[in-house]
Write a structure and sequence with these properties.
Blueprint lengths: L7 H15 L8 H14 L5 H10 L1 H12 L10 H18 L5 E7 L5 H10 L8 E8 L2 H9 L1 E3 L8 H7 E3 L5 E4 L1 H4 L2 E5 L12 E6 L8 H14 E9 L12 E5 L2 E4 L7
Parallel strand pairs: 1-2, 1-7, 2-6, 7-8
Antiparallel strand pairs: 3-5, 4-5, 8-10, 9-10
EC number: 2.1.1.80
Protein name: Chemotaxis protein methyltransferase
Function: Methylation of the membrane-bound methyl-accepting chemotaxis proteins (MCP) to form gamma-glutamyl methyl ester residues in MCP.
Amino acid sequence: MKEFLFTDRDFKEIADLVYNACGIVLGEHKREMVYSRLARRIRERNLVDFKSYLAFLKKNKDQEFDAFINAITTNLTSFFREIHHFEFIKSELIPVLLKTNKHSKRVRFWSAGCSTGEEPYSLAMTLNAAFPSDWDVKILATDLDSNVLAKAQSGVYTAANVNGLSEQQLKRWFLKSKDGEAYKVKPKLQECIAFKRLNLLQEWPMKGPFDLILCRNVVIYFDKETKDQLFERYANILSEQGHLFLGHSESMGKEHSQYKNLGKTMYQKGSNARGI
């Protein structure tokens, strides 16, 4: 028998709240996950069941809603995850940007769903020294979850977190703790990154244009209508031939004719993009 009563009505109400807040679809297969994650909130608030927690949430939205959303959202990432994307940036995208942006000397990347920071830091490592020193190169890193965003900003990782990085990368970009169990990103790597909390379904304060948007393993949680709206908004904020990268289990329908499919979940905006 479970610790807290969790009815079908409770689950539906939670699923509706999450969908309306951030577009994430919680199917029946997510029920156990929802129970285990929100059970912690119920304990912390000294409540008796999910019904009482939902009542508390309604009365104390300003106080509790961020913690509620943080508990539900999933964050799984690693440095240089899906390495082919970073290889494309290094070998294909950077040489093109050096030519197309040579007059503005401005480059903008957006890690949309940056989680605990491994993605934007991997991007910063890839971009390092790729552009002349007088260029304005910036990375925007956003996430809905304020907890993981705080970890990303701190730039502190365990030895297990950095396991996939080479000794050269670790020495160049991280400060190692005396016991060897913690690694902190050096300030030099953080200089070009701005971490901001953002709900992708709400208004975006930035205007762009972005040369590349990484939205990997984010839209997998959205329904088709929400995905389509998001792809349209990304197209509007990308540069004329900007790129959009999705996660390995995500895809974009052919109806999005403003994008060309480059393969390996990489898409390019514009009529001159090379498709496959």
